[in-house]
Amino acid sequence: MTPAIVIFGEMLWDMLPSGKQPGGAPMNVAIHLKNFGLNPAFISRVGTDDLGVELTDYLNRKGLSTEYVQIGETHLTGIVKVNLTDKTEVAYKIVQPVAWDYIQPDQKMTELVENSEVFLYGSLAVRNQQTKETLYSLLEKARLKVFDVNLRPPHYDRATIEYLMGKADIVKVNEHELSIVAGWYGILPDTQTQMKFLADKFDLRMICLTLGAAGAMVLDADGFTSQGGYEVEVQDTIGSGDSFLAMFLKHILAGSSVVTALKNACAVGALVATYQGATPSISEYELEKFLSN
Asked: Cα(63)–Cα(156) distance, rounded to whole angstroms?
């Protein structure tokens, strides 16, 4: 059976002061979807080094298939140096070039994307021409396309972001990223005006804005829907947005209302921030208990 969701992009190690943690937004989303009971497919690339072996072992332990994770001999597995001086505004130094910059196209991957319901991609993975070409070819085959904007200077440019937005049906963006993209067109920083402009310009079915501790907002054909944040004691915010997106997609795919999707997604994002690392396993019981309180 073809997985309903296919996720494309980087997998890497976040090098924290306390030690290394598996990471990369696409991989985090895939793992959270698996935790939430779905069975996504994940397309990426690692090196033949020990870090690559450890990462694929980690995915296997999480129950996620590595069938579409390529292993390359030329480049090392990706690493990111993380600065946690500010727990709510994490700073990243992303090493380049690495294995996930060189994801190669193949027929099996193309058929996977053609036969799935949802194709999720981000902007960081296309900083290199090889992975960019592979992604662009897959976007021509995908059905429902979800773009997770992930602006990490200096790893993006306006033309690429505009292209990726133009291919998307659903866009997830944070407040800072929304201001950058809307600012390219001179749209003043009123959140709803910026969201409406981008939704109209790129003919989006839905734009989802994450607001950190303040919650999230969605614009779709029915208008704006908002959800406030949940107060928690933050360990770090790594992976919070990825868990949010995974839970949001799970509910949207299941036919839930946007109100329900946002409520559960914001709750999961808050819960993940109470743990260290990007992919703690949040059980349904823990989520229900959190929401009932």
From this structure: 32
Contacts (Cβ under 8 Å, ≥6 apart) of 110? 137, 138, 141
Place of tokens 């292993």: 71
What are the contacts of 180-186 at 24+ separation with CB within 8 A? 180/151, 181/149, 184/158
Is the CB of residue 209 less than 8 Å from the CB of residue 218?
Answer: yes
Q: CB–CB of 92/80 below 8 Å?
A: yes
The model's pLDDT over 184-217, given as tens digits with 9 standing for 90+, comes to 999 988 999 999 999 999 999 999 999 988 999 9
**pTM value surpassing 0.85:** yes
User: What angle, 0 to 180 degrees and rounded to 10, lies between the N-to-C axes of helices 25-35 and 240-253?
Assistant: 50
Q: Which residues, other chains included, contact 176 with Cβ-Cβ below 8 Å and sequence gap of 6+?
A: 151
Residue 280 has pLDDT above 90, yes or no: no
Give the closest residue to 63 by CA, choosing from 43, 36, 44.
36
What CATH architecture does domain 5-292 belong to? 3-Layer(aba) Sandwich (3.40)
Q: Give residue-wise pLDDT tens across range 117-167.
A: 999 999 999 999 999 999 999 999 999 999 999 999 999 999 999 999 999
Q: Is the peptide bond before 154 cis (omega within 30 degrees of 0)?
A: yes
Measure Cα distances from 230 to 48, 234, 245 in Å. 42, 11, 16
